[in-house]
Design goal:
Blueprint (H helix, E strand, L loop, with lengths): L1 E4 L8 H7 L3 E5 L9 H10 L6 E6 L3 H9 L5 E5 L4 H8 L5 E6 L11 E5 L20 E3 L8 H5 L5 E4 L4 E2 L2 E2 L1 H12 L1
Length: 189
């Protein structure tokens, strides 16, 4: 099982990420307290070990902006939240990167051109946990939504391709190096 640390927004988060080498690091381009600009994401990408794939998180974003982030080599995966029809997903896939389509955990198997699914709680970004065992899909999926040190064992019982954490590795809204190290260790043991 893989691990993604999402919502990276500060250069000071990079040393622990380069040390523990998560399978993915996420940059949030959508409006949120973790939102980064293309310039900030460029700086973060350049300080992050080159072998760590980066995921751009977008909510109903224009395809041209997504393409710019790909063309600038800021991101190597695209994560889509909100309404994206199949044509838009196919257009984004044509940019040459894998696409992750986010869905509420209550959704069952969906037909999509996306390469991966991501199941989240009903209020993405809220950090609220739910019963992770309700999630299952034929397509490889990322599991997100309130995952932290206290409930990681429940998340690991699923057949997720990747565990996706953000607020669960924060203390008072700031990424916490100790929590990042611990959750990566637990996923990998």
């Amino acid at each position: 099982m893989k691990i993604k640390i999402c919502g990276i927004s500060r250069l000071s988060d990079l040393p622990v990420l380069n040390k523990v080498h998560p399978d993915f690091v996420g940059f949030v381009f959508a409006p949120s307290k973790r939102q980064v600009s293309l310039l900030t994401a460029t700086r973060l990408r350049s300080g992050l070990e080159a072998s760590i794939p980066t995921v751009g998180v977008f909510v109903e974003e224009d395809a041209a902006f997504i393409k710019e982030a790909i063309d600038e080599h800021i991101i190597s995966y695209v994560q889509l939240h909100g309404r994206y029809d199949e044509e838009k997903i196919k257009t984004i896939k044509s940019y040459g990167v894998p696409v992750i389509q986010a869905l509420p955990y209550t959704e069952k198997e969906v037909e999509t051109a996306a390469d991966y699914l991501l199941f989240d709680n009903l209020k993405p970004g809220s950090g609220e946990a739910y019963d992770y065992t309700q999630v299952s899909a034929k397509k490889p999926f990322f599991l997100a939504g309130g995952i932290n040190i206290s409930n990681i064992e429940d998340a690991l019982k699923t057949n997720a391709y990747c565990i996706d954490v953000s607020s669960g590795v924060e203390t008072e809204g700031i990424k916490d190096a100790i929590k990042i190290e611990e959750i990566v260790r637990r996923v990998r043991q």
